[in-house]
């Protein structure tokens, strides 16, 4: 049986999620910071992680942005196949929710209307909207503010099928060494393997939403995640690139079938301010 929703309902939800994501680092991330503090071996690394913990606690208490770069607003909507929409276009309502969230939340507006003309839209729209049709009659909305420092370090490469796991490892570690402290470590690395260029990049981005401490359900990829995490943390880049043991909090790999001629690999970094919030309507 169909469930009819007016698109106006999502405006207030997205406004709320924008503020929550920017103000409150989730418990999973804060717990990972504390574990990283215990594992960190360098003095400056421990001091840096302690500052990140204090900053996260203060931002939540005072309802302030945990980072001045409140990012490009990525909105992910998993829409049940039995949901029918009425009202104004969905994309317009999403952008209105983002607009209100950034304005009423006193969050920095970082979007330019044209990548070459560089004129700020002054309301942090448009959002990047992803939709997925799923079973049921519910809608799950996730807001993911993505800062420029980490997003700018992402990359993609089509490897040869024969490059295999070793080729993936080499590509990831070459990228990690090249970007150094620019993605604001300790970060999370999302890696997409397979699909096409667009889908591979999307898998890398979406993998960042997986809770820290969870591994891929397929043992082959879980092992790859564990080996890459160890290798990344052996680079010595450390918190904020100032040296130390903890460069990454997690490495999350997702995969998808691909063409016989290709082995696409995408890498997306998530800085230490891993911000996202979700709600089901």
UniProtKB/TrEMBL annotation:
<dbReference type="GO" id="GO:0046872">
    <property type="term" value="F:metal ion binding"/>
</dbReference>
<comment type="similarity">
    <text>Belongs to the class-I fumarase family.</text>
</comment>
<keyword id="KW-0408">Iron</keyword>
<keyword id="KW-0479">Metal-binding</keyword>
<keyword id="KW-0004">4Fe-4S</keyword>
<protein>
    <submittedName>
        <fullName>Fumarate hydratase</fullName>
        <ecNumber>4.2.1.2</ecNumber>
    </submittedName>
</protein>
<dbReference type="InterPro" id="IPR051208">
    <property type="entry name" value="Class-I_Fumarase/Tartrate_DH"/>
</dbReference>
<dbReference type="GO" id="GO:0051539">
    <property type="term" value="F:4 iron, 4 sulfur cluster binding"/>
</dbReference>
<dbReference type="InterPro" id="IPR004646">
    <property type="entry name" value="Fe-S_hydro-lyase_TtdA-typ_cat"/>
</dbReference>
<dbReference type="Pfam" id="PF05681">
    <property type="entry name" value="Fumerase"/>
</dbReference>
<keyword id="KW-0456">Lyase</keyword>
<feature type="domain" description="Fe-S hydro-lyase tartrate dehydratase alpha-type catalytic">
    <location>
        <begin position="13"/>
        <end position="278"/>
    </location>
</feature>
<keyword id="KW-0411">Iron-sulfur</keyword>
<dbReference type="GO" id="GO:0004333">
    <property type="term" value="F:fumarate hydratase activity"/>
</dbReference>
